[in-house]
Amino acid sequence: MIRTVDLVKSFGENEVLKGINTEFYAGKPNLIIGLSGAGKTVLLKLLIGLFEPTSGSVFYGDTDIFDLNAKQLRAIRMNVGMLFQGNALFDSMTVGENIRFPMDMFTRKTAKEKLMRVDECLEMVNLDGVNDRFPSEVSGGMQKRVGIARALVLEPDYFFCDEPNSGLDPQTSILVDELICDLTNTHNITTVINTHDMNSVMGIGDNILLLKNGQVSWRGDKSQVLESDNETLEDFIFASPFLRRLREDALKLRHLDD
Fold first, then answer.
1. Where is the ABC transporter domain (predicted)?
2. Which of 1, 94, 178, 205 would be a feasible disulfide site paired with 222, CB 3.0-4.6 Å?
3. For 30-78, what is each residue's pLDDT tens digit?
């Protein structure tokens, strides 16, 4: 589990985060949502330790990562997987080499052990047998799954995803969401997802954090979204007239059942 306590981040006189107190649970997809400028990306970078807070703490379990020295923080980061918005795959490397890269950098595994782990990870994301292809030779959805495999190759306890569905068609987005959710549940990973995708919110939002102007405006799960009377959530989730009508119809049906 990851926990933040009174987390504040300012850039000069601009206070981007204004005292965030929240928790991100293991075994669940934890979603951070909000309009552009709400502070989502800054929060994600603080959680990873790429930014230092102006004040406050980020706890991995019982450890405040900002109390650690460089060597201790590196050990924490070894236990973190990251899926970048643009996948960040190396074009000059094959799929297998991309997935193997973190093991080359951070482990002393033998070549045979690395190959076995690459195959395991490709099987996890349903991409058996594409080891020798280059990223340019596979689809955008497959590239995303390669990114997931690389992020999980070191078997991390923490997994961060920045807009995992960016650039994907709706059907592929759903498949990626389901894959991330299944891996999170199966391996009891603390997964944190920064997203604008409402399908993700309603599909895998087991723990949703809504930010507005650097503060927590709402927190709940996908089952509570339709019933919420939080105006910021309504404006964000139901900006589409179709979704607003869908919510109104769902509430009418619920009232009839009552």
1. 2-238
2. 205
3. 999 988 888 999 999 999 988 999 999 999 999 999 999 988 988 888 8
